[in-house]
Amino acid sequence: MKGQNKLFIAIIIALILGVGIGGIVHVKYPESAEPFSKNIKLLGTVFIRLVQMIIAPLVFTTLVVGIAKMSDIKMIGRVGTKAMLWFISASLVSLFIGLILVNWLEPGHVTKLPIQDAAAAEDLLKSSKSFSLEDFVKHMIPKSLFEAFATNEVLQIVIFSIMFGVALANLGEEYSKPVVKLFDIIAHAILKMVGYIMWFAPFGVLGAIAAVVAMNGFEIFKVYAIYLRDFFFALAVLWLVLLLVGYLILGNRLFELLKRIKAPLLIAFSTTSSEAVFPKLVEELEKFGCNNRVVSFILPLGYSFNLDGSMMYMTFASIFIAQIYGIDMTLGQQITMLLVLMLTSKGIAGVPRASLVIIVATCSMFGIPPEGIALILPIDHFCDMGRSMTNVLGNALATSAVSKWEGQLENTPQEV
């Protein structure tokens, strides 16, 4: 645990330094804020790209090995069913929490925001118009494995890996053993790389935070104080529900899990990328005692279907925009919106700023001005910090819970 604690402390220090450096640049050298932000953000970009470099091969090798070793097709179906039941339940709970709290707190009726120029949201408005069932199918089923690898389409890689793993499992050990052994070695080599890459995380955190503070300063928090307060209160309620369910399933081991994933949680919070911690999360969940076959099967699926923080934000932000424009939605309309979000959000995992794209599409569908997304764009980075961290927590709990239900959770932590 010593190395893990050192990394956690280094990230905390980087976070504080990033806020301090960004604040100084914004206050003392405002004319240099834009070039400074552009250059220091490269530290974050380097870290994210280092992680993205190993996600596709890690998902592919671990998932193929996990399924091939299961050999029992019934077990694959059972684990997949339990995982999907968790994902659907968690998504509905997250959406409902966002819906209930935004109606109770009414941040849109209290917050006084200047109407932003819709040009800032032009790219998002264009993205939302192209979303359709056809795009969902194309996004899910790979045209080429190499294209899926090149674009880091996790869901497409998962689909191919499951089919390839099942095929290997049915070939018989004589044929499959050398291939499974090779992929197992590659997976462990990649996990070894994770350890090296994670030591660059503090620099990535410093760059990402310093860039956004240098550009926005601290004044933005005053303008959006009510919106941020209410959103993070809603996130806290969601955390409470998730942790309560986690405690009912894992008991006191929940606290051990939280200690294990504290560094991934902080990295996701600082870099606004749950993808950035995927390899580290695989490693920590296996060390926690989750069966590596279950981890390699459920975690990639969770990154596509179990984004609890993003789900809650979708209902919260959509109703907030309606409140700003003085649009009163009936309970029936809001429930319909919730169900629409439940379905459409599953189709664009991995799309940049996916939550915002879905919010724009949903607003258009329900007669809410879609250009209202420009109202929350200035503060979206800070909301994304909370969303990303919550997504990581939700997936760690889902994987641990299914491992426990399958009787595949070791009581003593493993070393990977």
TrEMBL record:
Provide any one GO MF term from the record.
Answer: symporter activity
How does the record say this protein sits in the membrane? Multi-pass membrane protein
TM ranges: 7-27, 47-71, 83-105, 154-172, 193-214, 226-250, 319-344, 356-379
Entry keyword set: Cell membrane, Membrane, Symport, Transmembrane, Transmembrane helix, Transport
What Pfam families is this protein classified in?
SDF (PF00375)
Family annotation (SUPFAM superfamilies) = Proton glutamate symport protein
Keyword check for Transmembrane, yes or no: yes
A biological process term (GO) from this entry? dicarboxylic acid transport
Major site of localization recorded for this protein: membrane
Write down the superkingdom of origin: Bacteria
Q: What protein name applies here?
A: C4-dicarboxylate ABC transporter
| Organism, as annotated | Chryseobacterium vrystaatense
Please spell out the taxonomic lineage of the organism that makes this protein. Bacteria, Pseudomonadati, Bacteroidota, Flavobacteriia, Flavobacteriales
